[in-house]
Write a structure and sequence with these properties.
Elements: H1 3-13, E1 32-33, E2 55-67, H2 70-73, H3 77-87, E3 93-99, H4 102-110, E4 116-120, E5 133-137, E6 140-148, E7 167-176, E8 179-187, H5 194-214, E9 220-225, H6 233-246, E10 249-250, H7 251-254, E11 264-269, E12 274-282, E13 288-289, E14 293-294, E15 301-309
Parallel strand pairs: 1-4, 2-3, 8-9
Antiparallel strand pairs: 2-15, 3-5, 4-5, 6-7, 7-8, 9-11, 10-11, 12-15, 13-14
Helix pairs in contact: 3-4, 5-6
């Protein structure tokens, strides 16, 4: 987010019904959840009489969809989100950021066929927007948690992040009978000022604390727009401390990808009973419209992970 776009949002956003409150159709689809703290999963369950496969793969994506109102983005946000939706169906897990408006969410959701959908949409008191976070999956959600960040910087200054209710999602999926993975989705503080850097570092610390508490000994996949730049010393320090404390690996670096240091990241680690590795990392070339315009101001990051049951 930048100041110019969000000052406009602050002025007009509270007067126009473009999505500052949670969706009213909280259970319109199986597995969908639009209310903070609740879980709704498909009625079907895994067959626990069979141990299931011992290994497999997961094609996943993290994508900041640039879903602010059209008056902020300067383009047809709803049309873009309508086109993005069907493109997400090839992924078994999709972590999205900036799904802010209700109309945009409705347009994106219209093309999505994932049976399990969780949107963290409820804004904090005094904030214009929710977190903008959404997780889509083809796996049963065993447990769902959401947490707001305690810090932000700027309402009409900085990157104006205090207009949103940023935070992170934590969902435990069963990817095969008896095989579980903890998936995190978040969007950290933007901006480059000293207070922005401090808030972003605190976001990293808050996610680190949550991972240590909730995912001890478990396999983790993190999806998100980290806003952590390798060109900023404070960001480098925060990222290194986070990855070291949790034992996270960067999927891009794991396969020596050609575009290292991007702020949109897929991080991962193995657990006591599940080993994870990276098969591929790429930026797809089909997230475009109008003859080549990109569907967002961010690229989707697509990673294929390989998993295998293990014992430590």
């Amino acid at each position: 987010m930048n100041t110019g776009r969000l000052i406009f949002l602050f002025v007009v956003g509270l007067m126009l019904p473009f999505g500052c409150s949670p969706s009213s159709d909280t259970n319109s689809d199986a597995g969908e959840n639009t209310e903070r703290g609740s879980t709704n999963v498909p009625e079907t369950s895994s067959d626990t009489s069979s141990p299931g496969p011992s290994e497999g793969s997961l094609k996943i994506v993290t994508y900041n969809v640039h879903g602010l109102a059209g008056g902020i983005t300067g383009d047809n946000t709803n049309e873009r989100l309508k086109l993005i939706g069907p493109k997400l169906n090839v992924f078994v897990i999709a972590g999205l950021q900036e799904v802010f408006t209700e109309e945009g969410y409705t347009n994106l959701k219209a093309g999505v066929d994932h049976s399990v959908q969780h949107r963290f949409s409820k804004p904090l008191e005094g904030r214009a927007m929710g977190s903008g976070l959404m997780l889509l999956s083809r796996f049963k959600a065993l447990e769902v948690k959401e947490e707001y960040f305690k810090d932000c910087n700027g309402t009409l200054d900085g990157a104006s992040d205090c207009l949103a209710s940023k935070g992170f999602q934590m969902i435990r999926y069963e990817i095969a009978p008896g095989v579980e993975i903890d998936v995190y989705n978040s969007h950290f503080e933007a901006g480059s000022g000293a207070k922005d850097n401090e808030a972003r570092a605190n976001h990293v610390k808050q996610v680190t604390t949550a991972m240590n508490a909730w995912s001890k000994g478990r396999a983790i996949v993190y999806l998100g727009d980290t806003n952590l730049k390798t060109t900023r010393e404070s960001d480098q320090t925060a990222l290194k401390a986070w990855m070291t404390a949790i034992g996270l690996l960067d999927s891009c670096e794991a396969v020596d990808c050609p575009k290292k240091g991007r702020i949109d990241r897929v991080l991962f680690r193995s657990g006591d009973s599940l080993s994870l590795g990276v098969k591929s990392w790429n930026i797809p070339d089909d997230f475009v419209y109008n003859g080549g315009e990109t569907l967002s101001d961010h690229d989707p990051i697509v990673v294929e992970l390989e998993w295998k049951r293990s014992s430590k």
